[in-house]
Automatic annotation (TrEMBL):
<feature type="binding site">
    <location>
        <position position="103"/>
    </location>
    <ligand>
        <name>a divalent metal cation</name>
    </ligand>
</feature>
<dbReference type="InterPro" id="IPR002678">
    <property type="entry name" value="DUF34/NIF3"/>
</dbReference>
<comment type="similarity">
    <text>Belongs to the GTP cyclohydrolase I type 2/NIF3 family.</text>
</comment>
<keyword id="KW-0479">Metal-binding</keyword>
<feature type="binding site">
    <location>
        <position position="66"/>
    </location>
    <ligand>
        <name>a divalent metal cation</name>
    </ligand>
</feature>
<dbReference type="Pfam" id="PF01784">
    <property type="entry name" value="DUF34_NIF3"/>
</dbReference>
<dbReference type="GO" id="GO:0005737">
    <property type="term" value="C:cytoplasm"/>
</dbReference>
<feature type="binding site">
    <location>
        <position position="65"/>
    </location>
    <ligand>
        <name>a divalent metal cation</name>
    </ligand>
</feature>
<feature type="binding site">
    <location>
        <position position="220"/>
    </location>
    <ligand>
        <name>a divalent metal cation</name>
    </ligand>
</feature>
<protein>
    <recommendedName>
        <fullName>GTP cyclohydrolase 1 type 2 homolog</fullName>
    </recommendedName>
</protein>
<dbReference type="InterPro" id="IPR036069">
    <property type="entry name" value="DUF34/NIF3_sf"/>
</dbReference>
<feature type="binding site">
    <location>
        <position position="224"/>
    </location>
    <ligand>
        <name>a divalent metal cation</name>
    </ligand>
</feature>
<dbReference type="GO" id="GO:0046872">
    <property type="term" value="F:metal ion binding"/>
</dbReference>
Length: 252
């Protein structure tokens, strides 16, 4: 079957409630391609590698978490940006991107989907009432050592995580996929035993050590693979479309 591009975009916007969320980039349709959609290719980032794979897969739409046109970005269409846009336009492929709306969503969001992968029970937002902090709080069914939980992360995500171990058992967990290391202080205030995110900064080590919490950096890319897959699956079911997730490995 096929669906109109405008119908697909409208449903994705509605489902994620994208219009209400202030973000660092435009959410929704970023590059317009052919008017009818039969096949969606999803991926974490609209890199050249993903675009080339989408062309090979004869995609009509590329659906990503990390798209283009970020605040503060040079607006000139040159170099890498020119090559990426040329690939989309020359092949009449649309680019559909959702950043914070995909982090926040209670069903297909990156944070909720990562919790399902790691068997964490979601309890609520990391910072209640602050929509700018997209992380969550939750707990494990039974206390365990941080090293054992890090092994679970490794097994699920297929990437060796960075672990700062407080040597205490963990049960209460805070997390924010991607580049959420700056929220460790809010996690400490929320009383977590462990904070998990994608990346780490130099000062993150000291915050974890001096506040007596464990910390895991499991990879920006690795922690954000699941939301876009879930959204692609939802749209494919909704409109009887083909959906293919393509993972372009990224060690960061």
């Amino acid at each position: 079957m096929a669906v109109a591009l405008s119908t697909l975009v409208a449903e994705a916007d509605r489902f994620l409630d994208a219009a209400r969320i202030a973000d660092y980039c435009p959410n929704g349709l970023q590059v317009e391609g052919r008017p009818q959609v039969r096949r969606i290719v999803s991926g974490v980032t609209a890199s050249q590698a993903l675009l080339d794979a989408a062309v090979e897969a004869e995609a009509d739409v590329v659906l990503v978490h990390h798209g283009y046109f970020w605040k503060g970005e040079d607006a000139c269409v040159v170099g890498m940006k020119q090559r990426r846009l040329k690939t989309l336009l020359a092949n009449d492929i649309s680019l559909l991107a959702y950043h914070l709306p995909l982090d926040l969503h209670p069903e297909v969001g990156n944070n909720v989907q990562l919790a399902r992968q790691l068997d964490i029970q979601v309890e609520g937002p990391l910072v209640p009432g602050d929509p700018k902090v997209v992380g969550l709080l939750g707990s494990l069914s039974e206390p365990m050592k941080a090293g054992d939980f890090a092994r679970r992360v490794h097994e699920v995500l297929g990437r060796e995580p960075l672990l700062v171990d407080s040597d205490a058992l963990i049960r209460r967990i805070g997390w924010c996929t991607g580049g959420g290391q700056g929220y460790i202080d809010q996690a400490v205030e929320a009383g977590v035993d462990l904070y998990l995110t994608g990346e780490a900064s130099e000062q993150t080590f000291h915050s974890a050590r001096e506040n007596g919490v464990s910390f895991i950096a499991a990879g920006h890319h690795a922690t954000e693979r699941y939301g876009v897959q879930a959204l692609g699956d939802y749209l494919a079911r909704r409109f009887a479309l083909e959906h293919l997730f393509i993972d372009c490995p990224n060690p960061i």
